[in-house]
Write a structure and sequence with these properties.
By secondary structure, the protein is of the alpha+beta class. The chain has a single domain, classed as Sortase, Chain: A. It is 22% helix and 25% strand. An 8-stranded mixed beta barrel has the order 1-2-3-4-7-8-6-5. The longest helix has 60 residues.
């Protein structure tokens, strides 16, 4: 009976193959663990840290405003402290000048005078009851300085809260606090409030644009109207708020837009 002879070179090749397979398996496991940690960091840790930071900032702003005693500058016109000026419908461009109150020609709800905030400074609080959202608003839409902190960013050059024109905001939909994660859940007539040092401005959701180009600058113009999908937007001056975020989820290819109109202003204090 012949006994097979195993040569040393064959053994060495087999050993090298086993080592290569083992090293490859270790490398794949290591890469998988690293990727898992990155996913956990992005989807859990950044949200946790950004939300905690945003909550602390909201609390700090409200403490600061409380110490200032309101500081409302719009009460001295003889209409009585705490009065809430109504916003005529003619402001939203619906035409006719009728505000539903009869004989209200010339009534104007003037926004409280506001100083220009510094770049990346948090200076207001956005409140959306349907989303359970209460988040700081900061000047600018830079990722590191504003959005990645879990804040909502104000597009520089657009109107400030309560001013004529378009108060335009951006926020993350995924990761870093994702304040606008459920922006698509908003419905017509939902309430959106903006608190500042001097007043609270209430807007009512009026229109939505489910998807447009990330470069669609028309949606944040003073009279917001999509230049990509012209059927969406407005044609008359008004007092608008614009909320923008990325869509679909976990991508930044397109933008979703929600518009609202100012319905009231309540001075603080």
């Amino acid at each position: 009976m012949r006994v097979p002879v195993v040569q040393h070179s064959t053994r060495r090749r087999s050993a090298r193959r086993r080592r290569a397979l083992w090293s490859g398996a270790e490398l794949l496991v290591t890469v998988g663990v690293v990727l898992l940690l990155l996913v956990v960091h992005q989807l859990w840790w950044t949200n946790r840290e950004a939300r905690r930071g945003a909550e602390r900032k909201v609390e700090a702003l409200e403490r600061e405003w409380g110490k200032d005693g309101g500081g409302a500058q719009g009460d001295g016109g003889g209409s009585g402290a705490g009065a809430t000026p109504a916003v005529p419908r003619s402001y939203d461009g619906s035409g006719g000048g009728s505000d539903g109150g009869g004989g209200g020609t010339g009534r104007r709800a003037t926004a409280v005078r506001q100083s220009s905030p510094s770049w990346s400074q948090a200076y207001a609080v956005l409140i959306i009851p349907r989303l359970g959202l209460r988040v700081p608003v900061a000047e600018g839409v830079g990722k590191q300085a504003v959005l990645n902190k879990g804040y909502v960013g104000h597009y520089r050059g657009t109107a400030q809260p309560g001013q004529a024109g378009n108060f335009a905001l951006a926020g993350h939909r995924n990761t870093h606090g994702e304040p606008f994660r459920y922006l698509n859940h908003l419905r017509i007539k939902d309430v959106v409030e903006v608190e500042t040092r001097d007043a609270t401005y209430t807007y009512s959701v009026d229109k939505t644009l489910p998807q447009t180009s990330a470069r669609d600058s028309g949606v944040i113009r003073p009279i917001p109207r999509s230049v990509v999908r012209p059927g969406y937007g407005y044609s008359q001056p008004g007092y608008y708020i614009t909320l923008t975020t990325c869509t679909p989820e976990f991508t930044s290819r397109y933008r979703m837009v929600v518009w609202g109109k100012l319905v009231s202003m309540r001075p603080r204090g």
